[in-house]
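Quick check before the chapter quiz. The format below is the same one you will see on the exam, so make sure you can read both the input and the output lines.
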Amino acid sequence: MVKEVIWTEKSVRDRLYIYHFWFTHNQSTTFSEKLELLFTESAQLLAKFPHIGTRTNIDGVRIKVVRSFKILYQVTPDKILILRIWDSRQDPKTLKL
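Here is the expected output.
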């Protein structure tokens, strides 16, 4: 059964921040558009196969790696909650769910 994917407010803000960063850095939307496609495709894959991500030390939270980013998510009986999109080049101590 395909589960519904819910992007939390934090994960939406993460995506916007990432897109803005790359637009500012490259002066082009091309890379941001590629990332949007990758994140969307990954979310669709998680909807079909929710347990493909790696378990974390946080109860119920899994990670799906997309390039240098990590999609942190939780699986519920009928939904996938995408909690954060994390650039793995950042200090992990600053990550807050």
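If your answer matched, good. The first strand starts at residue 4 and ends at 7.
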